[in-house]
Amino acid sequence: MGVVTPFPLPFRGPTQVGFERAELNRILDLYGRMVSAGHWKDYAMDLGRDAAIFSAFRRAAERPEFRIEKRPALRNRQGMWALIGEAGVVLKRGQELAAVLAPVERRLMKLVAE
After folding, report:
1. Which residues, including other chains, have CB under 8 Å from residue 108's CB and lie 6 or more apart?
2. What is the pLDDT of residue 75?
3. Sequential pLDDT tens for the chain (114 residues)
4. How many CB atoms lie within 10 A of CB 54?
5. Which of 24, 41, 59, 66 is deepest in the core (most CB within 10 A)?
6. One-character DSSP codes across the chain
7. What is the separation of C-alpha 14 from the centre of its chain, rounded to a whole number of angstroms?
């Protein structure tokens, strides 16, 4: 009898995309400041095969006001980070999380100043 050699499986990559600790700290810091300003009430996270999505809601029973998406497959093209508005329009896309969150940070400054 011969030796049985297992058939090699192809590399499929990661099965789930998630946020790193520093990224999640930055997002939750912004979320906490928006909650304390009285603007956001709830959030949801979707960790899927292609993307990790953080959604922020004004009220729990509606569409998210903003979605922050991390899509590593777009890292070398448009940038893996995207800020998507309530209507589904991409508001900002880029390589760095801080630059993508800048429009929300400016909105927070306007809310606090009022």
Report:
1. 30, 33, 34, 37, 39
2. 83
3. 678 888 777 766 667 888 999 999 999 999 998 889 888 889 999 998 889 999 999 876 678 889 999 988 888 888 889 999 888 899 999 999 999 999 888 877 766 666
4. 22
5. 66
6. -----PPPPPP---S-----HHHHHHHHHHHHHHHHTT---EEEEEE-SS-EEEEEESSTTS--SEEEEE-GGGTTTT-SEEEEETTS-EEEEES-HHHHHHHHHHHHHHHHH-
7. 17
Tokens of 5: 């050699």
Residue of 114, 113, 105 whose CA lies nearest to 83 = 105
Q: Which residues contact 103 (CB under 8 A, 6 or more apart)?
A: 83, 91, 92
